[in-house]
């Protein structure tokens, strides 16, 4: 089978809700990433054959095919098509896997996989709750409700279920949340994010674009303490989950450029990594967030690798119980997991997070001189993608 290579990757620093990226229209913010990818690779924009873009809340400013709109807002020519993908939190990881499959099939040679989400301008649940409130229907059909009687799928409840199942106590979750902030702080202060972050103008909604450039993930608490995290109110009285142990609402965009071996030769590209494995799995939609565990086991078996063969892991920190349960079930080395912090500190711009995590994973592998990296994330509806890459730098 033909190989697929990642030849460029970048992301914006995440912006907090109503923060330094909230003035950006999501189409324009995504266009910045598209422009940067072709610039970093040094390819003719007209050579891009497709743009696959993850986005979860595809309404309002993110409606009407945000991928195509981002192309039209970028310097890519009109000849470049685009399509939008929703696999919930894994949307742009799925975009990467679709791009790799297109290249590996031999049907395309240069494909951008990207993601964008402005959770300030298009708030979370807009695409599900607003139609319901306006009498336009509920995403859980009568047949789904009969199959899961009395259940409304909830990521918050799924996080609580995982914590109970794996015996995770609140103090463990608080300690993990602190570690996320401390690692993100250390990475920022050591400038380990510099090569992956695309500087864009700071721009709060309702204001003019500032002269300052947005280059630091806005959600990092540089003064985080265990006492402060432990004092955050529980989301439900008998639970263990707090907002401090949940991924931060964020704005952002990210992307990678996937190339065939032919394109690498033709354009004299320098691959960052080779796609070694890609897969996706469905799991229990009620517990919902546990899917990365069986998906990782299945991916490693299919790839012929052991957990110890992987030099770096990016497991999305939707809630603190997710990576902690994953560590417990896989036996992975915690010192290889989310080494520069995760979504608890760095933010989770939904549809952009898959490409964002891959950009960080490639950076970590290069800095640590590692070979294999594994990325996975839980997704609404009880699914998980797994992508394994081999670093070539």
TrEMBL record:
<dbReference type="InterPro" id="IPR020613">
    <property type="entry name" value="Thiolase_CS"/>
</dbReference>
<feature type="active site" description="Proton acceptor">
    <location>
        <position position="348"/>
    </location>
</feature>
<keyword id="KW-0012">Acyltransferase</keyword>
<feature type="domain" description="Thiolase C-terminal">
    <location>
        <begin position="269"/>
        <end position="390"/>
    </location>
</feature>
<dbReference type="Pfam" id="PF00108">
    <property type="entry name" value="Thiolase_N"/>
</dbReference>
<comment type="similarity">
    <text>Belongs to the thiolase-like superfamily. Thiolase family.</text>
</comment>
<dbReference type="GO" id="GO:0003988">
    <property type="term" value="F:acetyl-CoA C-acyltransferase activity"/>
</dbReference>
<feature type="active site" description="Acyl-thioester intermediate">
    <location>
        <position position="89"/>
    </location>
</feature>
<feature type="domain" description="Thiolase N-terminal">
    <location>
        <begin position="5"/>
        <end position="261"/>
    </location>
</feature>
<dbReference type="Pfam" id="PF02803">
    <property type="entry name" value="Thiolase_C"/>
</dbReference>
<feature type="active site" description="Proton acceptor">
    <location>
        <position position="378"/>
    </location>
</feature>
<dbReference type="InterPro" id="IPR002155">
    <property type="entry name" value="Thiolase"/>
</dbReference>
<protein>
    <submittedName>
        <fullName>Acetyl-CoA C-acyltransferase</fullName>
        <ecNumber>2.3.1.16</ecNumber>
    </submittedName>
</protein>
<keyword id="KW-0808">Transferase</keyword>
<dbReference type="InterPro" id="IPR020617">
    <property type="entry name" value="Thiolase_C"/>
</dbReference>
<dbReference type="InterPro" id="IPR020616">
    <property type="entry name" value="Thiolase_N"/>
</dbReference>
<dbReference type="InterPro" id="IPR016039">
    <property type="entry name" value="Thiolase-like"/>
</dbReference>
């Amino acid at each position: 089978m033909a190989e697929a290579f990642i030849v460029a990757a970048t992301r914006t620093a995440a912006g907090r809700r109503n923060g330094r990226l909230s003035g950006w229209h999501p189409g324009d913010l995504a266009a910045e990433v598209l422009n940067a990818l072709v610039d970093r690779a040094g390819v003719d924009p007209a050579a891009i054959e497709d743009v696959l873009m993850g986005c979860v809340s595809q309404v309002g400013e993110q409606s009407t095919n945000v991928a195509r709109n981002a192309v039209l807002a970028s310097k890519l020519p009109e000849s470049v098509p685009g399509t939008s993908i929703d696999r919930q939190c894994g949307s742009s990881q799925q975009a990467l896997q679709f791009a790799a499959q297109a290249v590996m099939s031999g049907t395309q040679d240069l494909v951008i996989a990207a993601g964008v989400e402005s959770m300030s301008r298009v708030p979370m649940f807009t695409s599900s709750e607003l139609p319901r409130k306006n009498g336009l229907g509920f995403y859980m059909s009568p047949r789904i409700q009969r199959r899961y009687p009395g259940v409304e799928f909830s990521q918050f409840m799924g996080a609580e279920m995982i914590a109970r199942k794996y015996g995770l106590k609140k103090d463990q979750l608080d300690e993990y949340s602190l570690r996320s902030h401390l690692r993100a702080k250390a990475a920022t202060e050591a400038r380990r994010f510099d090569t992956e972050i695309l500087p864009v103008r700071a721009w709060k909604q309702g204001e003019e674009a500032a002269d300052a450039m947005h280059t630091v993930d806005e959600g990092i608490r540089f003064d985080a303490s265990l006492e402060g995290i432990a004092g955050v109110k529980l989301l439900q009285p008998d639970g263990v989950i707090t907002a401090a142990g949940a991924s931060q609402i964020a704005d952002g965009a990210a992307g990678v450029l996937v190339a065939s071996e032919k394109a690498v030769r033709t354009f004299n590209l320098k691959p960052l990594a080779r796609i070694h494995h890609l897969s996706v799995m469905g799991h229990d939609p009620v517990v919902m967030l546990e899917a990365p565990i069986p998906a990782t086991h299945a991916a490693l078996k299919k790839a012929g690798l052991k957990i110890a063969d992987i030099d770096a892991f990016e497991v999305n920190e939707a809630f603190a119980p997710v990576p902690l349960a994953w560590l417990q079930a896989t036996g992975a080395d915690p010192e290889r997991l989310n080494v520069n912090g995760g979504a608890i500190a760095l933010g989770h711009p939904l549809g952009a997070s898959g490409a964002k995590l891959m950009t960080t994973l490639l950076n970590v592998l290069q800095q640590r001189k590692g070979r294999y990296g594994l990325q996975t994330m839980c997704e609404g509806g009880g699914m998980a993608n797994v992508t394994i890459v081999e670093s070539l730098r």
